[in-house]
Amino acid sequence: MRYQISGKQIDIGEALQTHVQTEIEAAISKYAGRPTDALVVFSKDGPAYACEAVVHLSTGLTVQAKAKEHEIYAACDAAVEKMEKQLRRYKRRLKDHHKERAEPVEVSGAASYVIAGNDEAHDNEPESLQPIIVAEMETRIPSLSVGEAVMQMELAGAPVLVFRNEKQANGVNVVYRRDDGNIGWIDPQG
């Protein structure tokens, strides 16, 4: 497994890197088969340290967790613990998903845009209805079943996930977390 461990404006020593690798390896190996790579970023947030960890699994799914603590090692341990809790919740589904899927999740590319918000300081009418694009990025849209999409959204801690529904030819679907705590599913073909 490849590890990319870095710090934002803080130095990360060898001991911390070894600790991160050991903890992630122990947590992931219990629940998910073969992780391919891990990205861990430490930063200073006021008096606390923040740890953000993202682990990509060989099946194409991604597990993500964030934590803040006053000690840098404690921040790492808390993030790994959150990740382990997510994986524990989905252990049976991950194992079943791994058996059913002979190949990794198919992913297609798409453009992602950041659009400028309305400036509330100006009450003037906009000159045109065309949005102002602030940034353009490449994003990936996975081909998943609805159950896998819900699991991926929760593993990543995301409020929404856009995916191609495997059960449909070219159907793009959306799952999202509703305000009432339930999961919503948008199926334009259904």
TrEMBL record:
CDD domains: RaiA
Span of domain Sigma 54 modulation/S30EA ribosomal protein C-terminal: 130-184
Xref: InterPro entries: HPF/YfiA_ribosome-assoc, HPF_long/plastid, RHF-like, RHF/RaiA, Ribosom_S30AE_C, Ribosom_S30AE_C_sf
UniProt subcellular location: Cytoplasm
SUPFAM superfamilies with a match to the protein in the record: Ribosome binding protein Y (YfiA homologue) (SSF69754)
MF (Gene Ontology): ribosomal small subunit binding
Segments forming a coiled coil: 73-100
Biological processes per GO annotation: negative regulation of translational elongation
Domain of life: Bacteria
TM segment ranges: none
Broad class of where this protein is predominantly found: cytoplasm
Pfam family for this entry, one: Ribosomal_S30AE
GO terms for cellular component: cytosolic small ribosomal subunit
Keywords: Coiled coil, Cytoplasm, Translation regulation
Family: Belongs to the HPF/YfiA ribosome-associated protein family. Long HPF subfamily.
Subunit-structure text: Associates exclusively with 100S ribosomes, which are dimers of 70S ribosomes.
Function: Required for dimerization of active 70S ribosomes into 100S ribosomes in stationary phase; 100S ribosomes are translationally inactive and sometimes present during exponential growth.
Name of this chain's protein: Ribosome hibernation promoting factor
Gene responsible for this protein: raiA
